[in-house]
Design a protein that fits this description.
The structure holds two protein chains of two kinds. Chain A is mainly α. Chain A has eleven helices and no strands. The radius of gyration of chain A is 19 Å and the shape is globular. By secondary structure, chain B is an alpha/beta fold. Classes of the chains: A mainly alpha, B alpha/beta. Chains A and B meet through helix 1 and helix 5 of A and helix 3, strand 5 and helix 4 of B.
C-alpha cells in the first residue's frame, strides 16, 4: 500500500469519527476522571505510607500514571469493526479491492486513533499535567516516539488477530473480553509492572502485554535512561515481528474458510 | 506479470466446488445447551462441479433459483471465497490465490450491498477509488465525465451515500465498479428492488458499456427480462450444477413450440377441459391465458383458434412466444426437461 493511500484511508476514518463523535466532551471527561481517580489514589497511598515503593516516588508514580493512562486513552481502537463486517457479510466488499486487508485496517485504525489523540489524549495530558504534576525526560524524546509507535503496532496486531477469530467463530465477544482483561491487568495501563511480585514478573517477560503501555511510559518518564532504552525497543520490535507473522498466518488460514453471511 | 493473451478465454472455470459446513442447533433452550457439547455438522455443497469458459466481450447471464450457487461462483471468481476443489482463472490470474492482482482487473457490483463509503459524500467515495486503483487524474476525469453524463450522477455527488435512494445508489455503485475501466465486470443482482424506469436505464447503460468498451460482463439476476434484453449467452444453474449453457435465443427456440394464448371472452368462457391442447395458466376476469402445446395432430394453432372462436364469443386474441422466464420456470418445475448437460455448449 502506498503512503498516499494509507493516509487517505486514515483521513477518511478520522473524518467519520468527527461526524459521529459529538459526544466527545463526555469522552474527555470520562478519560480525565480515570486519571484523576488513579493519581489521587496513588497520592494518598504514597503520602500515608511515605517513602518509595517498587522504585517509585510519589511524583514518579503520578507521572507514570498520567502518561500510561493518556497513551491508553489515545490508542483507542474499535474492536467491533472486523467481526461486524464478517457477521453481516460486508467483509466481501473489502476483499474486492486490490489492497491488503491488514494494511487497510491498520490505516483505518490509525485515523480512528488520530481522532482520539487530538480530541482526548492531548487535552487530558495538558490538564492533568498542570493539575497533578508531570515530569518527563526530555533526553528520551527519540526513544519515546519509537516506543510509542511500536506499542501502537503491538496493540493493533493483538486486536487485529483477535478480530480475525471471527472467521472461525460467529461470536468473538468472549475473546475480546478476555483480551481486555489481560491488557488491563498486564499491560501497565493501570498498574506498573514493578508492583507485581518478582516470580510473576519473570513470566510476564514472555508475554507482549507489558510492551503496550508499561514500556513507553517508563521511557517517556525517564525511569529508564535513554541509553538503556534500546533493549526495550528491541524486544518491542521483536514482538511486532512475531505478532505480524501470527496475524498473517491467521489471515491465510482464515480466508480459506471464510463464509459470506447473507449471500 | 503475465501478459494476458487476447484470444484466450477471459474467464475459465473447471470443476469448481464449494462446500460449507453448517452446524445445526436444536430448537429452544435445550437445543442451545446440547449444541454446547456436541455440534452436529452438515456439509452443504453450494457449488458442485461448475465449469465454463467465457470469451472477451461476452455478456453472459448467470441464472438460477435462490441457493443454486450463483453468488458463490461469483465470489470465487472475484477472489473472496476459496473453492473446495476445481480451478478458476480470470484474465490469467487465479483469483483466490492472487486476490489483489485479480481485484485490479475486475469490477464488482453486489446489488444487496453498497461498495461506497456509507458516511462520505458520494464524490469522496469516487476519490477514494481513484486512490485505491491508482487511476491517473486525466483518465479519472474522462471516465467520471462519461459516467456522469450517461447515468446523470452530477446532482448526487455532494449527497452522503446513506441519503441516496436505492435507484440512485445503484447508479453510483455501477459507476464505482467501472471507474477503473475493468476488463471484466461481475454484476450480482444489480437491478434488485429497482422500479421499471430505473431498471431500464441501467440495462441501457450496461448494454452500451459492453458494446463500446468491450467489457466482458457476467450478470446474475432473478429478473429474466434483464437476461433477455442483455445477455446473448445464458448459463443456468440448478443445485450447484450447470444445467444449460448456450444461446439465450436457443433456449426459446428449443421450447418455443409452447406458445401462450391470451384470449378475452365476451361473456361465456370455456371450461377447463373443453380443449385438449390448451391448458389454462392464468385467469383474470374475462381474460384467460392458455398454454398451447403443439402435438402435430390437431391441425396447428390456427385450427385451435378457429375452433375456439366458433364455439365461444371471443373478443380479442393475442399469441405470444413464451418469455425466457416462463421457460426457466418450467425447467425448475420439471414440466419440461433438458437433456443431460454434457459440458459442451
Amino acid at each position: 500500500m502506498t503512503p498516499g493511500l494509507f493516509l487517505k484511508f486514515a483521513v477518511t476514518s478520522f473524518r467519520k469519527e468527527i461526524t459521529y463523535r459529538f459526544d466527545y466532551l463526555i469522552m474527555i471527561l470520562n478519560g480525565f476522571l480515570y486519571v484523576f481517580i488513579f493519581t489521587s489514589l496513588w497520592r494518598s497511598v504514597f503520602t500515608s505510607a511515605g517513602g518509595t515503593f517498587g522504585g517509585f516516588t510519589k511524583e514518579g508514580i503520578i507521572s507514570y500514571t498520567i502518561v500510561a493512562m493518556v497513551v491508553r486513552i489515545s490508542f483507542s481502537m474499535d474492536d467491533g469493526v472486523i467481526p461486524g463486517k464478517v457477521r453481516d457479510g460486508s467483509v466481501a466488499l473489502d476483499l474486492i479491492r486490490p489492497v491488503s486487508f491488514q494494511m487497510m485496517n491498520l490505516a483505518q485504525n490509525a485515523g480512528y486513533s488520530a481522532f482520539h489523540i487530538t480530541a482526548r489524549g492531548i487535552p487530558i495530558l495538558i490538564v492533568s499535567g498542570l493539575l497533578f504534576g508531570l515530569h518527563v525526560s526530555a533526553g528520551s524524546l527519540p526513544a519515546s516516539v519509537v516506543s510509542l509507535a511500536l506499542s501502537y503496532l503491538i496493540l493493533f496486531l493483538l486486536n487485529y488477530s483477535v478480530s480475525l477469530l471471527s472467521f472461525w467463530f460467529i461470536d468473538v465477544f468472549p475473546f475480546i473480553l478476555l483480551k481486555y482483561g489481560l491488557i488491563n491487568l498486564l499491560s501497565g495501563g493501570l498498574l506498573p509492572m514493578d508492583f507485581f511480585p518478582a516470580s510473576i514478573r519473570g513470566w510476564l517477560d514472555y508475554l507482549p502485554f507489558q510492551h503496550i503501555f508499561y514500556s513507553p511510559a517508563v521511557i517517556i518518564t525517564g525511569r529508564v535512561a535513554p541509553e538503556h532504552a534500546w533493549g526495550i525497543l528491541a524486544s518491542q520490535a521483536g514482538w511486532v515481528v512475531a505478532l505480524w507473522i501470527v496475524s498473517a498466518l491467521m489471515w491465510r488460514a482464515g480466508s480459506n474458510r471464510l463464509v459470506i453471511q447473507g449471500g | 506479470m503475465v501478459e494476458f493473451e487476447v484470444n484466450s478465454p477471459v474467464i475459465e472455470a473447471v470443476g469448481l466446488k464449494k462446500e460449507f459446513s453448517v452446524s445445526e442447533q436444536g430448537k429452544g433452550f435445550a437445543g442451545a445447551v446440547k449444541a454446547l457439547f456436541s455440534t452436529k455438522k452438515r456439509i452443504v455443497r453450494a457449488v458442485d462441479g461448475v465449469g465454463f469458459s467465457i470469451q472477451p466481450g461476452e455478456f453472459v447471464g448467470y441464472a438460477g433459483e435462490n441457493g443454486a450457487g450463483k453468488s458463490t461462483t461469483i465470489k470465487i471468481l472475484t477472489g473472496i471465497l476459496v473453492p473446495s476443489a476445481g480451478t478458476a482463472t480470470v484474465r490469467g490470474v487465479v483469483p483466490y490465490r492472487d486476490r489483489k492482482a485479480n481485484a485490479a482487473n475486475i469490477g464488482v457490483v453486489f446489488g444487496q450491498r453498497t461498495q461506497l463509503w456509507w458516511d462520505l459524500p458520494t464524490s469522496d467515495s469516487f476519490e477514494m477509488l481513484r486512490a485505491i486503483y491508482r487511476i491517473k487524474r486525466g483518465d479519472y476525469a474522462d471516465m467520471m465525465k462519461k459516467l456522469s453524463d450517461v447515468l446523470d450522477l452530477g446532482p448526487l455527488m455532494s449527497v452522503p451515500v446513506r441519503k441516496l435512494s436505492l435507484g440512485q445508489r445503484m447508479k453510483c455503485d455501477i459507476a464505482a465498479s467501472l471507474i477503473h475501466r475493468p476488463k471484466v465486470l461481475f454484476l450480482d443482482e444489480p437491478t434488485i428492488g429497482l422500479d421499471v424506469v430505473a431498471k431500464e436505464n441501467i440495462r441501457q447503460f450496461l448494454g452500451e458499456i459492453n458494446r463500446t468498451e468491450g467489457t466482458t460482463i457476467i450478470l446474475t439476476t432473478h429478473d429474466m427480462n434483464d437476461i433477455e434484453r442483455l445477455c446473448a449467452r445464458l448459463i443456468i444453474l440448478d443445485k450447484g450444477r450447470v444445467i444449460y449453457d448456450g444461446l439465450t435465443e436457443g433456449l426459446r427456440q428449443r421450447f418455443g413450440h409452447e406458445k401462450v394464448l391470451e384470449v378475452e371472452f365476451d361473456g361465456r368462457s370455456p371450461a377447463k377441459t373443453a380443449l385438449p391442447n390448451l391448458e389454462i395458466v392464468a385467469e383474470n376476469g374475462s381474460k384467460i391465458s392458455f398454454k398451447y402445446l403443439e402435438d402435430g395432430r390437431s391441425g396447428g394453432l390456427a385450427a385451435i383458434i378457429g375452433k375456439l372462436a366458433a364455439d365461444f364469443p371471443v373478443k380479442d386474441i393475442l399469441v405470444r412466444e413464451p418469455s425466457v422466464e416462463v421457460i426457466i420456470r418450467s425447467i425448475y418445475e420439471k414440466t419440461v426437461s433438458l437433456p443431460p448437460y454434457d459440458g459442451q455448449k
